[in-house]
Design brief:
By secondary structure, the chain is mainly alpha-helical. Helices cover 77% and strands 0% of the residues.
């Protein structure tokens, strides 16, 4: 089932990039991000309330809070960087280059989460990173 949700996330991300590129055309990228962030917060807390999970907030331990807060801060930075990249570059190039995050995710999972990797993961990550670089630095068609 995780594959379905991953594909839905990928499709949603592609739609977000396309809509955001149009949104930052005549708007400062940080303003566009702030508008989307307010909506993200409203929808996220609405889903938590609708699912009946509001009570779980009080059960979160201090260590988990720290990790979630730091991840939230880094998520904000990532989005700010992405919006600025979209403002300055083509959506197809910026979003493809952003996918090099896969390589960083694999490396972080190996070193910090002690996940084991296979040659298929290494090959796939190499091909994806190579494809992202190829797309990002390809010549514009005339």
């Amino acid at each position: 089932m995780w594959v379905v949700f991953s594909l839905l996330a990928a499709l949603s991300a592609a739609i977000v990039v396309t809509l955001s590129k149009v949104g930052v055309k005549n708007t400062e990228s940080s303003v566009a991000f702030a508008i989307q962030s307010v909506l993200i917060v409203a929808v996220a807390w609405s889903v938590v309330a609708w699912q009946g999970h509001l009570g779980q907030v009080a059960e979160i331990d201090r260590r988990t809070w720290v990790f979630l807060i730091v991840a939230g801060i880094i998520t904000c930075l990532s989005s700010l960087f992405s919006f600025q990249a979209l403002k300055l570059g083509q959506a197809s190039r910026t979003s493809s280059f952003d996918k090099i995050s896969l390589v960083f995710s694999i490396l972080l999972a190996i070193f910090f989460l002690k996940e084991k990797i296979t040659w298929q993961v290494i090959l796939g990550a190499t091909l994806m990173a190579g494809g992202a670089v190829l797309i990002a630095f390809s010549r514009e068609s005339t």
